Amino acid sequence: MELQKVMDLLYPPQCVLCRDLVDHGGPLCAHCWADTPFITGPVCDACGTPLIGEEEAGGAQCDACLATPRPWHRGRAVLDYRDNGRRLVLGLKHGDRHDLVGHMAPWLARAAGDLITDDTLLVPIPLHWMRLLRRRFNQSAALANAVGRILSLEVCPDALIRTRTTPAQSGTADARYENVVGALRAHPKRGRILEGRDVLLVDDVMTSGATFTAATQACRAAGARQVSVLSLARVVKDP
């Protein structure tokens, strides 16, 4: 008998949200899967927000990205940051649910599909060292490393650094942008890897896009050729 089958007999797989037993290899039971707001269908090409309609609209952008053009090239997200989507993100970020990384990475890898080039470098959004010390791990780096293994892509967790501590992002979009001004830059030594590369930034949540904007600017200042963004969840405004 295969080892996995033995483990399943000893420790029957459970849904990562409700702990009900699951009869397949996925992380969610049928009920939680149906109630999890995965982003599907046509999306904004810049940030991954769902667009109204049933057909893919190549290159189309949402109102927010049209009103505030993004400095990066393209973007994708896996989940709408609400309900079960929010529970999953918070479980990973603040609930010590490191086990979720292995389940989330394939979702991110699929979402990243058309963002990948022959020279893509995965770069997670960094934490300041003081926050990293308190939290003990960077969830964005964990996700980037797992996606890199799936897609056989190079990952540089310390290509970018935080130059100062910043309060948790909150408030208006203007306040969020002001909060991260000058807070990210290329690592003095490791950042050289960014020069001439196609960079895919990875983070857990995108709200206004302020953090991705600061990170994109830092990558471009270091000589990156092209920057795209990938987030586990996207805060989606009601239409």
* Total strands: 7
Helix/strand class: alpha/beta
- Helix content range: 25-40%
By DSSP (H or I, 4+ residues per run), the number of helices equals 9
Radius of gyration: 18 Å
Strand order of the largest sheet: 1-7-6-2-3
**So what's the overall shape?**
globular
Question: Strand fraction band?
Answer: 15-25%
Order of helices and strands: HHHEHHEHHEEHEEHE
Average pLDDT metric: 87
Main sheet makeup:
5 strands, parallel
Low-pLDDT ranges: 6-10
Separation of the first and last Cα atoms = 52 Å
Describe the fold and architecture.
It is a single chain. By secondary structure, the chain is an alpha/beta fold. It is built from 9 helices and 7 strands, in the order H-H-H-E-H-H-E-H-H-E-E-H-E-E-H-E. Strands 1-7-6-2-3 form a 5-stranded parallel β-sheet, sandwiched between helices. Strands 4-5 form a two-stranded antiparallel ribbon. The longest helix has 13 residues, at 139-151. The model is unreliable at 6-10 (pLDDT under 50).
